[in-house]
Amino acid sequence: MKNTKYLKLILKALAGLVVLILILAIILPFVFRKQIVGQLVKTANENLTAKVAFGDYGLSLFRSFPNFSLSLDQLSVAGTGVFEGDTLVKTDALLLTIDLMSVLKGETYIIKKVQLDKPVIVLKTLKDGKVNWDITKPAPETAPATPTESTMKLSVRKFNVEKGKLLYDDQSMGMQTRLDDIDMSVRVDINGDIYDIDSDTKAGALSFFYGGIPYLNKAVTEVQSRIKMDMKQFRFDFSETQLKLNQLVFGLEGWFAMPGDDMQMDLKFDAAKSQFKDFLSLIPALYAKDFSSVETKGSLAFDGFVKGTYNEKRMPAFGLNVLVNNAMFKYPSLPAAVENINFDIKIANASGVPDNTVINIRKAHLEMAKNPVDITMLITTPVSDPTIAGSIKGKLNLNDVPKFYPLEASQKLSGNVEADIRLKGAMSSIDKKQYEKFQAEGFLTISAMKYSSPDFPQGLTINALKLLFSPQVVEMPVADLKFGKSDLKASGKLLNVLAFALKDEKLTGTFESRSNLIDLNEFMTQETTAAAPADTAPLAVIKVPANIDFTAKTSIGRLLYDNMDMKNISGQLVIRDETVTLSPFTMETLGGSLGVKGSYSSKGVTPSIDFDLDVKHFSIPLCYKTFGTVQKLAPVAEKCSGFVNARLRIASLLDAAMKPVYETFNGSGMLSTESVEVKEFLPLKKVGEALKMDKFSRIAPGNVKMEIAIVKGRLEVKPFDFNIDKIKTKMSGWSALDQSIGYDAVMEIPREMFGGQANAVLDGMVKKAGSQGVNIDPGSTIVVAAKITGTHLQPVVTTDLKKSVNSAVNEIKSQVTEKVKEEVQKVKEDVSAKAQKLIADAEKQAQQIKDEAKKAGDLLIKEAEKQGEELVKKAGNPITKAAAKESSKQLVKQAKNKSDKLQQEADKKAQQVIEKARAEAANIK
């Protein structure tokens, strides 16, 4: 009985403890919820320059008892500065497991586990090397007397990612990497500064592009790694690390460290036991075509290494060996195979000096349905003087392709391709024009080729294409193509091809092309053609390459683009310095002819145009239907018949869809009309209604000349004369993109045209003028001034009488002059402000360059002094100590010299930045 009594007491105590725990589990999250989130926000603000935002949040003890579990929904981290508006990270949910006792103590919070649900991470490197993930605030130059400890401490034992995405875009190297459907599980064991990390990562699709070429396309990827990380030395040791790409599996071992600014490494990778089929799985076109059924034989072995130090001046040694022996593959349902596949490729650099790299394709042979292809290539001293020895030889009857590769039922392919090219010599021979010392000969021909597919139903036909190779030039004596209904015949020459391919030097060329018809509408989607007029069709920015210099003469019988029909096009096109120049181009279109001189440039961030246009006898209704610019700036064209002539100079920046940025659209010139008739144009009808006259609903002003200007997208018309029946009219004003208008008209109206209700209007205007002190006695001609404001769709008209035409015109001129003065002053102020900001930003950047150089120089000196002190400490006797002191002095002296040189280079660079800004500011003014 006594034992039973004790047992009941114990059970009651346990029950009470459970209830207490449950109560605490419910209450504590409410108590600490705001406090923990507040500490997170505080820590982020103290350490990050980025913008951190999240939606709802919650805190629980049940999910990860006995620790707190904090969830943040819709978390995002966005950039600032040049990355303003760019999202670095966004995730549906972030889940943190926080040590309970660290929260209760109210000191440093310890985060034990991190989980991300559906994160999207976008990493960017700009051309100037700036990165969007550099979001930590810089440490203060002078440390505080007592360093403060962060209120958040990472002691992460687990890190999980579910259904993530990663995009890395390196614009400085032209490289992009994308990972989709990422699942990652990382487990960490911590022993002081040593972290043992087990990581399992899977990605549903890995794509890698370099220079626009897809080296991997949606490869299924798995990585299992065992890493020992020494945080003190910042060293990573890899063991039992395995990477799988589709079917290809290879291992990685070695180490990587960054004890200072340099990267040090000794890494090896290999796939010695792989089969040839595993390698085939990396070829997207093969992997997508019933890959599991493909019959293969042969072996693949590849291995490589990276060993040494990498920094701005040094690179590690490296090597890559690929060997394929007696391989083949065949689709069971097809009669032929790709066989006798043998590759022996070695890329080696034993010293880390870039110029010591050797690329050796000893053998590359395969036979596609008995069509042989052989390639050999040896490239040495690729930096100082690329030396090449190699050949490409092969034939392919395209009619045989369906015999070894399964085409879609609606895909058609036929024709012949043949190549025989031999190269041997050094680039220096070509640079010195010693062409006899460089062997470059051979040809590439394509004949009777036809291709079509569901994605390209228009089809491509290459009747003949021939390239002839020599040391000086690659000549294209003939190119005869058809694509859909379109045709193209061309010939030309390419110079400096090898220097372009090996050293990225400028490629030059001259071409002539002829075509009877080019129908671009065949290649435009229905969405594109229906969505917008021709000049607003959605396009991407066309980037003109910087390292090509082409001159092409062209003639096209007919060119169709959306609703534009252009005929007899001829002219010269020059591609140079990231700019396309037309000089000149002529064509027949819109019922008349057009001459174009000018340029399109893709230099800098924003593309631009600058053209001289010579328009003759264009149909005004067709202009309105075709050009969105006309619809926006001159909607009167919708109500017009007749023709227009113009000589215009236009310039504008273009947006990402290749449309004019109207706020930067400027132009000027003369415009004249022929046989113009205007019907039911609302602003003119409103003038007629104000005067109670019916002459304004349909007017035929005939041939009219006017001087126009386009300023920041606003069309300004200088005073011009025309007749409305017997009414002599002088008009001027402007139209804006938002359809607002501001026009003034002075009309000399014969007295006999007033009658009925018009007389009552006239009497009212006479009385109004008299009340303003202007006595008017209506004679044989009445001078009426009309002001038209509002918009094209809702015009507002006011009228009054003037003693004479001159007085009315002078009054209008005065109003216009004042308006122009206001606009000019505003533009001057805007320009001055932009110029001042440009220079101020440059001075700030220049100072930053100097400060960074000084900081780097001071660091060099400090490091040299430290090394000198260590040398002196290690010296064991007076003699070695004296020598150590002298060595220490030399180290410091060398460091100071390097520091001075860094400062001089920085001063020079800073001055260049300021001078460039001043020149740009002067151009703006």
Please provide a written account of the structure.
It contains 14 helices and 40 strands. With 925 residues, the chain is α+β, with helices and mostly antiparallel strands. Among the domains are: 391-496, no CATH class; 516-679, no CATH class; 830-924. It has a 40-stranded mixed beta sheet that branches. A hairpin with a 2-residue loop joins strand 8 and strand 9 (194-210). Helix 13 (805-874) packs antiparallel against helix 14 (878-924).
What is this entry, summarized?
The chain is built from 14 helices and 40 strands. With 925 residues, the chain is an alpha+beta fold. β14 (295-310) and β15 form a beta hairpin.
| Global outline | globular
- Average per-residue pLDDT, rounded, comes to 79
Percent of residues in β-strands: over 45%
Number of DSSP helical runs: 14
Number of strand elements: 40
Distance N to C terminus: 104 Å
- Protein structure class: alpha+beta
The low-confidence parts are: 11-33, 142-154, 526-539
Write the layout of secondary structure elements.
Blueprint: H1 2-47, E1 51-53, E2 57-64, E3 67-78, E4 87-98, H2 100-105, E5 109-117, E6 120-125, E7 152-170, E8 175-191, E9 194-210, E10 213-230, E11 235-245, E12 248-257, E13 263-270, H3 276-280, H4 284-287, E14 295-310, E15 317-330, E16 338-349, E17 358-368, E18 371-380, E19 387-397, H5 401-404, E20 412-426, H6 427-431, E21 439-453, E22 456-469, E23 473-483, E24 486-495, H7 497-503, E25 507-515, E26 518-519, H8 526-531, E27 548-561, E28 564-576, E29 579-589, E30 592-601, E31 608-619, H9 620-626, H10 628-633, E32 640-653, E33 666-679, H11 682-691, E34 698-702, E35 705-711, E36 714-724, E37 727-735, E38 741-750, H12 757-771, E39 781-790, E40 795-802, H13 805-874, H14 878-924
Parallel strand pairs: 5-7, 6-7, 25-27, 26-27
Antiparallel strand pairs: 1-3, 2-3, 3-4, 4-5, 4-6, 7-8, 8-9, 9-10, 10-11, 11-12, 12-13, 13-14, 14-15, 15-16, 16-17, 17-18, 18-19, 19-20, 20-21, 21-22, 22-23, 23-24, 24-25, 27-28, 28-29, 29-30, 30-31, 31-32, 32-33, 33-34, 33-35, 35-36, 36-37, 37-38, 38-39, 39-40
